[in-house]
Amino acid sequence: MSSSGGFQQPYGGPAYNPTIQEYQIHSPVYAGRLFSLLELQQLAKTKSIQPATLVQKNGTSFPVPVNTVPGVFSQKQWITALLLSIFLGGLGVDRFYLGHTGIGVGKLLTLGGCGIWALVDMIIIAMRNVTDSDGLPLA
After folding, report:
1. Which of 63, 89, 110, 117 is the most buried (most CB within 10 A)?
2. Which pTM was predicted?
3. Angle, CA 73 vertex, CA 127 and CA 117 arms, to 5°
4. How far apart are the C-alpha atoms of 116 and 136, rounded to whole Å?
5. Could you read off the pLDDT of 45-89 as tens digits, one per residue?
């Protein structure tokens, strides 16, 4: 962290502060308000915004889906995790995909907890109540 309170970019770039209010959400609920990256992350975790919600960064001329803003949603896809859970969940492949290697090994060694653990994980993923290893919601 730099002395100005910002976060140092790699390769000696300028300091970046994720609390700067710089994103506008294209929704009547959030009209006229600017959000920081940290606020966007919190809205994503509470499911107040979805991956396809449009946001516009100050200084740009067009909105983009919020899942293209780095650090708000995971790079892992929900549908991929669900399909892996359905077809290979008993082997822990879904958890390996999400970056939870310890849980993946546990599922692999117990064959998905004799199927019970695999079924519970399938339901949790289907309900979108799972995050990747960084704690970000799936896109």
Report:
1. 89
2. 0.79
3. 35
4. 25
5. 999 999 999 999 988 899 999 999 999 999 999 999 999 999 999
Q: What is the largest CA-CA distance in the chain?
A: 54
Q: Which amino acid is at 67?
A: N
Adjacent-strand bridge partners of 64: 55
- Across the chain, where does the E strand assignment appear? 23-25, 34-35, 54-57, 64-65
CB 107, CB 89: distance < 8 Å: yes
- The answer to whether the beta carbons of residues 17 and 5 sit under 8 Å apart is yes
Place of tokens 């600017």: 34
Residue type, 106: G
Residue whose structure tokens are 């929900």: 78
What residues have CB less than 8 Å from 13, skipping those under 6 apart?
none
Q: Are strands 54-57 and 64-65 parallel, antiparallel or unpaired?
A: antiparallel
Distances (CA, A) of 101 to 35, 65, 91, 133: 34, 30, 12, 9
